[in-house]
Amino acid sequence: MKKIAVLTSGGDSPGMNAAIRAVVRKGIYSGLEVYGVYQGYAGLMNGKIKRLDLGSVGDIIHRGGTILYSARSEEFKKDESQYLAIEQLRKHEIEGLVVIGGDGSYRGAAKLTEKGFPCIGLPGTIDNDIAGTDYTIGFDTALNTVISSIDKIRDTATSHDRTFIIEVMGRHAGDIALFSGLASGAESILIPERNHEINEIVQKLQKGIERGKKHSIIVLAEGVCSAHDLAKSLEKDYQIETRISVLGHIQRGGSPSGFDRVLASRLGARAVEVLLEGRGGRAIGMQKQKIVDNDIMEILSQKDPLPEGVYTLSQQLSI
Ligand code: ADP
To answer: Which residues bind Mg(2+) (predicted)?
Structure first.
């Protein structure tokens, strides 16, 4: 193998640049030519492919977003689009592709591998919802962004004796809500993996009030319901007045944390090694501090569980 390429796809996450840098530098270190594909699979189909040198990934390790840009493409889900993408890669004599993205991007990588073009998946998403890795690239940074926002909101909640509902990202996975809620001492944490009764939330708020507590923080993952809907029903059915804060896209941005930079560098470098070993269709991850690779199709068929005991602990500590 002499030439490989790298692309970023789907929702961006802090640390994608550090992963691109690792793929490029490790590739060149190993004697390869490395190419960047711009705008994900959409750019791949359109042949937006450029050679990257050592300098083209200089000064990016600390930047959020992705220098290769990201995109979503419905068109790419068609077989003929995938064949076109492979043709574009072969035009440049590229023989392997590293895809940095979430589970949708992994599906694309699996399809290309099935059609004879070896791809490797790197978990780039703030959601921490990919099986086969304890952490995804970007989760730690997003978590810290959310925690610092909650800390600020808590200051005003305390000053005004208010209950705040803070809506965070996580349509199917509650990791951001759970970890940020635990780390910021939230009174209630609502995640899509659990069924939450509104009665329970109300009882908890009332118990707090009985012991003299006048403010509360409820962290809500967007996949449960919207903060507006929860606020409305607390007010209408229980006469509990709340303020809401929807954190939105600030959770995706910012300079990656040290943890994410190291994780991205380790996983990116390993992706190059696995391609050089002649193995495609693998998803790189970190499990129990070790860098591992798993079959990408198996990863896609598994549900990433919440870390054992963390939800129970959050309940125990917020009585
Ligand atoms: P993420 O990778 O963050 O989960 P998406 O789910 O939007 O983001 O997926 C990113 C891109 O991956 C999609 O726009 C599409 O081009 C490609 N993709 C998603 N699912 C498939 C699929 N089943 N087959 C081929 N490509 C897919």
So the answer is: 103
Which of 252, 267, 288 terminates a domain? The answer is 252
Count of the separate structural domains present in the chain: 2
The pocket around ligand 1, CB under 6 angstroms, is made up of: 9-11, 41, 72-73, 76-77, 101-105, 107-108, 111, 125
Asked whether the beta carbons of 96 and 280 are under 8 A apart, the reply is: yes
189 and 115 within one domain: no
> DSSP readout, 212-228?
T---EEEEEETTT--HH
Tokens of 217: 């923080």
Domain contains 134: yes
Query: CA quadruple 14, 254, 218, 225: dihedral positive or negative?
Result: negative
Kindly state whether residue 67 falls inside one of the protein's structural domains.
yes
Whole-angstrom distance, CA of residue 296 vs CA of residue 119 = 9
Q: For residue range 236-263, what is the model confidence (pLDDT) as tens digits?
A: 999 999 999 999 999 999 999 999 999 9
Tally of residues, the chain: 319
* Strands 290-295 and 282-287, sheet pairing: antiparallel
Atom of ligand 1 nearest to the CA of 71: 14
- Beta carbons of 214 and 163 less than 8 angstroms apart: no
Domain that residue 196 falls in: 139-252
The set of catalytic residues is: 127
Residue 7 to residue 65: CA distance in whole angstroms: 13
| CATH number for the domain harbouring residue 170 | 3.40.50.460
Report CA(76)–ligand 1 centroid distance (Å). Answer: 8
Reported as a single tens digit per residue, the pLDDT across 86-124 is: 999 999 999 999 999 999 999 999 999 999 999 999 999
Low-confidence ranges of the chain (pLDDT < 50): none
